[in-house]
Each structure stands twice: as structure tokens, then as C-alpha cells.
Task: structure prediction
Amino acid sequence: MSQETKALIVAGIAAACVLVAYFIPTGVAWQRKHQSRRAIFILNLALGWTGLGWLVSIIWAFTGTSKEAAADIAIATSRPDNDTIACPKCAETIKRAARVCRFCGHEIA
Ligand SMILES: [Zn+2]
Result:
């Protein structure tokens, strides 16, 4: 193997490593099912070479809500809130502090 071939192989391996490292933010975003993973990929691709763009995209990839976290938040906020109860007589949702049901007039002890 000539010296030139060896140098080419080393350069090729180095280029592959740089390419993999360059797209780490995109990989992280995809792995986390980040809601903005397409935007992170575009930022990574377009401005990653500036260094600052790469830094911003990796921070963005590691922070913010993933799709799973967003779903958890949606479930948590859709639960009936804690200061309401169901009326024991008519089952309508009324305030926990209510003494009389506003729907059926049932008195709550
Ligand atoms: Zn009622």
C-alpha cells in the first residue's frame, strides 16, 4: 500500500467521523422524538458548520419537549381538575365547595 493510499484512507475515516459528529444534534433530536426535530435538523445542516449553530442545535435537541412528554402534559391538563366533584344525585360536575347542586338543587352535606 502506497503512502498516498494510506493518507486517503485516514482522511476518509476522519471525514466520516466529522460527518457523524456533525449530525449528533439531529440524532439526539430524533432519538428523543423531539417535537421540533425537523427544525433542529435544518439548523444543524445549515448552520452547524459555524460552531454556534451546532451548539444551539445540540442544546435545543437535549431540551424542550419530546413527543412523549407533550402527550403526558396533554393528559395531565385534560384530567378533571381537583376542585370539582360529581353531584351524588344528578352526576353533573359541580364545585367541590358547593353546598347546593346548581343543576338539581341537591344539598351536599
Ligand atoms: Zn345535582
Summary: The longest strand covers residues 84-86. The beta strands are 84-86, 93-95. The chain is about 55% helix and 5% strand.
